[in-house]
Fold this protein.
Amino acid sequence: MAARGYRIVLTAERCVMSDYHGSIFLGFCACAPRSMWYPFFYFRFICPSAPTHDGGKAKLAPYGLRKIEAALINYGFSKSDVVVAHPDKIKKFIGPETKVIGVASNDPLGRGPASTTFTGETGFFGGEPYDAWKFRELVSNPKLKRWNAKIVVGGPGSWQLEDEEERRRLGVDVVVVGEGEKVVPPIFEKIINGEDVRGVFYGDVVEIEHMYRILGGTIGGIVEVARGCGRGCRFCIPTMLRFRSRPLEDILAEIRVNVKAGQHSVCLHAEDVLRYKANGIYVKPEAVRELFAAAAGVEGVKNVGLSHFALASVAEKPGLLKEISEIIGVGSRNKPWISGQTGIETGSPRMIELNMPGKVKPFKPEEWPDLVEQAFGICQDSLWIPCGTLVLGLPGETEEDVYMTIELMDRLKPYKSIIVPLFFVPIGSLKGERGFSVKDMKPSHWELILACWDHGMNWAEELASEYVFKMPWLAKTYVMSFMKKVVRRISRKARKEIIRMMEESAGK
Ligand code: SF4
């Protein structure tokens, strides 16, 4: 079918338009400096394009973009007004009738925690991350502005464009920060009616009934089961404050939409999937079991996974993980384990008390290091692989706090997992604080980096060979040969470099 111009064109930065061969956590690679792999290899073998149809419409798109598409249709725009297009094919859908181009990005300027840790002035390697490069390239393409359409940016990283100077530099007209369903449709309507809308708009917490069902397949088969968190960490975004679980029938309907689009793997998404339908912070095991069983039971679904879980929830209901593993068939040759992201953040109860007391509930801050180890043990027994994060440079952090985290890393050595140290980025109620950078690293921080590196290298090869098994042969060979290169050859060099930096920072 020949493409044509639409009044509203929705798209996303190229790095989020890939489901990374079904291994969605490889998406972290988008935060690496663009010199890490040749772009040809990166976009062909690690981050291949999501499929398209009808000349460039996205068959699969980021979940947030699908939510905005659904909100626009529910608001009253017709399906013939709105298209979700692949960024490489977008110009085919832009014409004189196009008034708005909505762009989703996780990390438009490369200022998210992962990018600031690895790239730019603050990070270990310097340079521009793939995602920021591709965002810049997309929004500054003169073809987007040919018919004077307004460029509206949303997505988890849109806060990075609150600065007017940055928006002007990139030619971005409007930025939407926060939940988009209620705030985006009226903005688009005003633009279409000829109003000169510009600036930053903040989307407030959206009620369940306004989280409309998606109309097309999603990258990674992501389907949102709950939104918000309620644990109230000071460095988190404000809309996380209210936790809302979606009705099971909405979730199942979205899974069916995915299956219809050819997406047979489902990733249940929430900040803590274990708290689906929870009573405050208390896990409701029967609701979680029902959720996983129902998702796995949808006709056409071959694989069910999850995005995030909380270690406090694991420790609160220790038997639940094993039950979930049984329900979704973890432990087979094709699915030796499942993984999910989880926040460890620190090994210091004092840091917990100061910045994230809600994170440990219903336990106490002083129990945190024991709780983390216990939860990692439960994960191991249940064939769950935690992909944990640590935050370096939290406000009020002392060397003693960092050493407590190093101690915790030592206790976590026997547990198959990946632990990624990230720099503190001042968002949420800590917006006024100073961010952390590689220049702020003390010897203790380098020691912690070394502990994380050694932990990762200890498990990397085994995890990688199990993780990439479903990739096409060539991609699998490429990733594995890279892993072997890292583990066997570069690791020793990297260790030496970390130790050198540690000594250098000690001499400052
Ligand atoms: S637990 Fe995670 S999602 Fe919840 S408030 Fe803390 S940082 Fe945010």
About this structure: The first helix runs from residue 39 to 46. The mean pLDDT is 92. Residues 8-207 form one domain. The chain has two domains: 8-207, 217-440.
